[in-house]
């Protein structure tokens, strides 16, 4: 084992980058003990050198030049924490080609460009480590790629977006609106100024895509499976779900069924006796099912500075002790495999929750049940609270109607939804969610 220092550079000193720097600087002695050699932060690349930061960096560490890192032969590892695809893809390629291993938390980049990046890393004899890209501080990537290698993973059910989970928890626990819960998440630092990728389901879908790639060897684009966010929900939806014995979570699912992969990431009603229903705040929880080990549960913080930084630093230590160099070239990561087909979304079978705002007048319920019946969808339960008497000057009032269906296919449900959208008696919003039984 080498006793020489492992020199690292951070590109991107945002929330996570600052957390990584804090750990490397404040726990230098601990990191040396665990890595068997010193880990030295040599450079930190920022866009604005004059901007104040919440971590005290030595003056010689800060730079606004990426080339200062890539051209420095003494730097062994680049911690690449820039989001998005461009210029992150070019920076990672250049880091690999300059002889450096890479640690990243960029799930969007891996989801879109993982195959070419991993191929190039193997050609160059370099490593890419990415534990922080999925589930924050939860050691999920290591579990899927190493600890469960004796298994064929047959099922993934996971809460993978800590920001959305915090928002849903805040709404229901504190009886606040969606907008107020988002604002709270932004104030704490869980949500960005523009929280779109978290709340529209993109982040969870990207993470699910990475897990499917690792577990099953197939690349699934975001447009190939159902994706829906929590930005369509209101407090009323969570309250009606609770009345029916369920909790709403943004649930990412991938299941092997008869040689096909059922895959979706959507706000979903989960029975209250399911452990996934009790994951609160910014925590993530993942249920992996293997054909040998059965069900394995993992849980931990899925958002926040130090949780994600923890996973980044763990990868740096893997490189320092030589584990990454041994495992990366041998693991079957991002090598395309054949044989598993994506289940057409129209064939996915499950139950559904509908919340409709309807005119409180005769024949409305008959109109709705006729549409559902025409598509062979039967009703399991119906909730309509007693409405107040209508003012004589008004023709009718608008009241919420909640329907739980029996099991049906996504194709039938979508066809019925389109017809329900056309009924004059239904007013927007029309909320629909799957049920995980």
From TrEMBL:
The active site is at 207 (proton donor). Pathway: Amino-acid biosynthesis; L-methionine biosynthesis via de novo pathway; L-homoserine from L-aspartate: step 3/3; Amino-acid biosynthesis; L-threonine biosynthesis; L-threonine from L-aspartate: step 3/5. Keywords: Amino-acid biosynthesis, Methionine biosynthesis, NADP, Oxidoreductase, Threonine biosynthesis. NADP(+) binds at residues 11-18. It catalyses: L-homoserine + NADP(+) = L-aspartate 4-semialdehyde + NADPH + H(+). NADPH binds at residue 107. This is Homoserine dehydrogenase. The lineage of its organism: Bacteria, Pseudomonadati, Planctomycetota, Planctomycetia, Planctomycetales.
